[in-house]
Design goal:
The protein is mainly alpha-helical. It folds into two domains: about 300 residues, no CATH class; about 220 residues, Methane Monooxygenase Hydroxylase, Chain G, domain 1 (Up-down Bundle), CATH 1.20.58.220. The protein has 28 helices and no strands.
Length: about 575
């Protein structure tokens, strides 16, 4: 072989790697489609049981074929408070077990049958009469394709067995620390432990890799794959960052436990793995792929079972390293008043629900107050409570809170409704559910205003006229007064205060009619008014929607006098 590496070998190897990764993607996509919605929701639906959480993580990773994807999903679920980070830890342990499935698959040396498997899957995906069969065919096609990619890579690197510089490089991997570092770096660059494992098995199939070197590289790959979770958690809340930190510490602990005992562990793997006849590179080629797969499984399984009983202590350690930020906690959606223990006493539970609904009203009022700012002023502005947030950032944060509270309060009210209630309490529960849904709708209106209309105005590159701004501010001021009245009425659950909102309907309609008339007159004489016509009219329409929802809330505020006299 020439002393310089052939570009042909490099190109064929990269092509094989691309086929391998595309096969994994195709297989994963087909499995996810065939498995239905239940599997996609599995992670967010697990119970508090650690063992079940670990099983869920393992199963989901086998389906997705990427522990990095599962950890990134966990980061997102914790960020959106659909899962606590303590629950996410158990799922993470399972994900580390599930990721060993790929190594086991590629170690079966099915590459000689790759095209037959691909053809069978293709036929099933084309001729299958049901969606389930077609999706299964897609997964089978991907399964064949990844093995064909493995075969291409294996054939590409075969000439390297006699290439002196390459053999010299491999000798360096016999140093465990260098192997760990190389595995960590290459996996971080690839963002895929599956791709790196494919390369390891390819080298092992050619007899170019020893088991000791393969284990060291694999330990490094376990840490290198954490880069996906670290990047996914950047800019997120501390709880989400703790999930990424947990994966790093988990896999780093694996290195600390297994690296000092590398030779003894390798002997254990050889003892439990099949032995091949022959000697030299041929013997390595027949034994090492399966040994690497078994080592990968045993390490991750041992680590998961080792950590599982100590998750509470691990939880505390993570919190000690990365504690909650007090300012951040205020930004995170949370209930303040709802108490499960009060559900046995409907009167008490209703008082807690009313307090939480009143809080929703205050949050909605802050959103409405800020809603017109982006259309009247040029800069991003600052949130009235959290100055480090922009005005739009503050609105988005409160919309997330309203969505969260709507879900939690509705669930709480449903639980109250299952108790023995008198007629007045039943009416109160029904009224509060209507109020909660309506307040959440106000948040949706303001979010639309902040997202859709602000972007639309930005694209126009034209400002609203001063006259138009003044008219909008008049309508907006009246709407703000209404929702402020509502917030106060909700705190006291006072229907008489809410009646003030209903009385302002005539004045509101008058302001809207005047604004629409004068705006249409400007459109005929001013070019800028014509350009911003859609934005102007949609703003009025959205403020009308907020006014309409305010009336609905005002009409639903229950008279709780009789309840309080009990």
């Amino acid at each position: 072989m020439r002393e310089t590496l052939s570009w042909e070998i490099l190109f064929v190897f990269i092509g094989g790697l691309a086929l391998f990764l595309y096969g994994i993607s195709m297989m994963s996509c087909g499995l996810k489609k065939a498995s239905g919605v239940r599997v996609r929701k599995l992670i967010s639906k697990i119970s508090g049981n650690r063992f079940y959480g670990m099983l869920a993580g393992a199963f989901a990773t086998v389906i997705v074929q990427s522990s990095s994807t599962i950890i990134a999903i966990l980061v997102g679920l914790v960020q959106t408070r659909l899962m606590t980070y303590s629950e996410a830890l158990a799922v993470m342990l399972g994900a580390e077990i599930g990721t060993t499935a790929m190594a086991q698959l590629v170690a079966f040396k099915l590459h000689d049958y790759a095209l037959i498997i691909f053809a069978a899957g293709f036929a099933l995906s084309v001729l299958g009469k049901s969606e389930s069969l077609r999706f299964t065919g897609e997964a089978l096609s991907g399964f064949g394709l990844l093995f064909f990619g493995l075969k291409v890579m294996s054939e590409a690197v075969a000439p390297l067995q006699s290439y002196a510089p390459f053999l010299s490089l491999l000798r360096y991997l016999d140093y465990p620390l260098l192997g760990v570092g190389a595995g960590m770096l290459l996996t971080a660059l690839m963002h895929s432990s599956a791709a790196f494992i494919g390369i390891l098995v390819t080298l092992a199939l050619q007899g170019s890799l020893t088991l000791d070197a393969g284990i060291a590289l694999m330990l490094g790959a376990n840490v290198g794959t954490c880069i996906t979770a670290v990047l996914a958690s950047s800019g997120m809340k501390r709880a989400a960052k703790r999930v990424a930190l947990a994966q790093v510490l988990f896999n780093a602990t694996g290195i600390l436990l297994f690296l000092p005992l590398l030779q003894q562990f390798a002997e254990l793997i050889r003892y439990f793995s099949p032995i091949a006849d022959g000697y030299g590179a041929g013997k390595l080629a027949n034994e090492v792929p399966r040994q690497i797969a078994n080592a990968h499984l045993l390490i991750n399984l041992f680590m998961a079972l080792f950590f599982l009983p100590f998750l509470s202590l691990f939880d505390r350690l993570l919190y000690w390293i990365l504690p909650d930020d007090p300012e951040e906690i205020r930004l995170v959606p949370a209930v303040w008043y709802l108490k499960e223990s009060a559900l046995t006493t409907p009167f008490l539970a209703l008082s807690y629900a009313k307090a939480e609904v009143a809080r929703m009203g205050s949050i909605a009022a802050k959103m409405v107050r800020a809603s017109l700012y982006p259309f009247i002023n040029s800069g991003p502005g600052k949130d009235e409570v959290f100055p480090h947030l922009s005005v739009i950032g503050g609105m988005n944060m409160r919309e997330e809170k309203l969505d969260f509270l709507e879900s939690r309060i509705s669930d709480y009210l449903i639980k109250i409704s299952r108790s023995a209630l008198n007629e007045r309490e039943s009416r109160e529960v029904f009224a509060l559910m209507n109020i909660v849904n309506t307040l959440e709708s106000i948040g949706d209106v303001v979010e639309t205003l902040a997202a859709k209309l602000v972007e639309k105005k930005r694209e126009l590159k034209s400002d609203l006229s001063n006259e138009g701004k003044y008219e909008l501010m008049e309508i907006h001021t009246l709407v703000c007064q209404e929702i402020e009245q509502l917030a106060g009425a909700l705190k006291e659950m006072d229907p008489s205060r809410a009646g003030v909102v209903l009385q302002g309907d005539v004045r509101f309609k008058q302001l809207v009619a005047e604004a629409e008339t004068t705006h249409l007159k400007r459109v005929f004489v001013m070019h800028d008014a014509e350009v911003t016509h859609d934005v102007h009219t949609e703003l009025i329409d959205l403020l009308e929607q907020v006014h309409h929802y305010c009336k609905i809330v005002a009409g639903n505020i229950p008279d709780s006098g009789a309840i309080s006299s009990r």
